[in-house]
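Protocol step 4 of 6: structure prediction from sequence.
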Amino acid sequence: MDTTATIIQRVREEARRRNVRWTNQREAIVATFVASKDHLTVEELHRRVRLKDATVSAATVYRTINMLTEIGVAVRRQFGASASAAFECAVDRDHHDHLVCTICGSITEFHHDLIERMQVEVADTHGFLLSHHRMELYGTCGTCRIQVDPPAAEDPAPVAR
């Protein structure tokens, strides 16, 4: 299991190999990203990093997240056609799929062995060699379901007349 420091060292070495200048700002971006368990947009990552270092520019965050994606530390996700790209850390993460709420945008990660086996079976049936997959299920989360369609109050007892 890689620690944040190990991941930062790996990214630092890759940045130097690519002739990308390593700065305290870039290190803050990587540390913030790796520590997050969320699916972050670049804007949200920028906001979080600026809490630590107000001098970090959005351009530096964009360049850094692109490098992280290229070297396999980050995975780019697009949840919905109009949503901004979101990124999640790919280091020391088991495969998982996503439930995406179309109302509040919450993302719930899940893994289900039967679904995984069925996907391999479908691929095999079609003579398809599966290299990877992504599953995103869209709908309404439990919290939004309650807010949008609150449970009906029980009918009051009939009044005797």
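Step 5 (inspection) to follow. The chain has a mean pLDDT of 87.
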